[in-house]
Amino acid sequence: MLRGDGKLTHELDPSDTGPQDACGVFGVWAPGEDVAKLTYYGLYALQHRGQEAAGIAVSAGTGVVVYKELGLVSQVFDESTLASLQGHLAIGHARYSTTGGSTWENAQPTLRSTSAGTSVALAHNGNLVNTGELARKVAATGIGAQGPVSTNDTSLVTSLLASDPDRSLEQAALEVLPTLRGAFSFVFMDEHTLYAARDPQGVRPLVLGRLESGWVVASETAALDIVGASMVREVEPGELIAIDEGGLRSERFAMPEPKGCIFEYVYLARPDTTIAGRGVHATRVEIGRRLAAQNPVDADLVIPVPESGTPAAVGYAQASGIPYGLGLVKNSYVGRTFIQPSQTIRQLGIRLKLNPLRDVIRGKRLVVVDDSIVRGNTQRALVRMLREAGAVEVHVRISSPPVKWPCFYGIDFASKAELIANGLDTEGIRAAIGADSLSYVSLDELVAATEQPRKRLCMACFDGKYPIPLPADDMIGKHVLEGIERGVGHEPLPLVASPGGAGALSRP
Ligand code: SF4
């Protein structure tokens, strides 16, 4: 039975979700350390990247054991579970689903045994775009088998890595990784070795850190900080790293063509994380400054939509000279994650999440700074709530350009048709959300704030230029494998047995 931790999540109001992150990964090789606990705290630091499921794989040299479950990291693991996960290397995963539904079978790390008697466990941040092709390859190897059915791209990769008993995992990785298309920051392991690999575009982050007695890899530098590891460097795009008692080996499986996700700076990454040498918090403050310079307005108070709008609101206030204040309080502890809200509660909508400070707001002309607009439902409710609380004007400022295109590399925004900026121009969106004015930061100013060369960034959700080619429409999307299994538009394929099926522990 999963335990609620009292925190409000988007589960409470599924009609009103913002961008959903695509997972956090963590790996550690450290003989003599409690690797399961290090992984637990690493995942805890990465919880913002995925809240649907969590899992840890561990090895003491004789076999790989996986424990995974739906829920938050703090709900899935307790002292006794962690104490049962003994070993010298471990990987972990916090999941938000981008390919395959939110089911136990799709939780990670995935696990697959080879006929040579070894095991492969794998955790993935990102999303592949040649999933259909990979499913056919797996089917052709004949390694699909009985067992619980998983429908995620990660399990296909695990199957391919484990498909040839005569190859070492390292050899298999060097053959399989170049055949993958899309975004992948992987951590994976067998009984003895920790591996990390990043797609040639380096769409999702992945960093390498050093412990006194070992090595750590993680999605974000903040996870290194939390386990006391020092940052060594980023895992390079197109690089495979292997770590075992022989030390650290680095091999290149593809030429790097860097296209880091610009949305990591806007919203996804923690503010205390560093990407390509640039602090995320500093970047967000700078975006806010540029937003103010581009879109000035006469107002009395700048307030953030907490918490993701906070650094940009600070920057907006600094550059505009308008005082900064808190006008909205986030309700972090109003519901239990696994209790479905009643219809009455659901109708409260945004009030479940944010409550206005009426004394601060009353009689004021407000600038409200938020990170992005996806469907517009949140901002419409927010503007109405601020007016009811006594605001005389509400000017909405957004620290990213209009999101017009879906992401196929690991972020679940919404379908193209659901994106409000796909059908309406800025004036239309302003009218739809009921604001007195609405402005977005331009793409040029956003890029400038990251201090990254434009050519090294993916901006496809803003400009529609996808840096990794996409397959035909019917072979992409979150439920592509469910579609293939049903034979939608294709010859039905044999189901792929879940690598999580055999050898994985389940909560009794
Ligand atoms: S499409 Fe947007 S969210 Fe997706 S990887 Fe590119 S910049 Fe990031």
From TrEMBL:
Catalytic residues as annotated in Swiss-Prot or TrEMBL: C23
Keyword Transferase listed: yes
Protein's GO biological process: 'de novo' IMP biosynthetic process; purine nucleobase biosynthetic process
Co-factor binding comment: Binds 1 Mg(2+) ion per subunit.
Keywords carried by this UniProt record: 4Fe-4S, Glutamine amidotransferase, Glycosyltransferase, Iron, Iron-sulfur, Magnesium, Metal-binding, Purine biosynthesis, Transferase
Record EC number: 2.4.2.14
Pfam families for this protein: GATase_6 (PF13522), Pribosyltran (PF00156)
Entry cofactors: Mg(2+); [4Fe-4S] cluster
Domain Glutamine amidotransferase type-2 intervals: 23-246
UniProt-annotated binding residues for [4Fe-4S] cluster: C261, C407, C458, C461
Stated family: In the C-terminal section; belongs to the purine/pyrimidine phosphoribosyltransferase family.
Protein name: Amidophosphoribosyltransferase
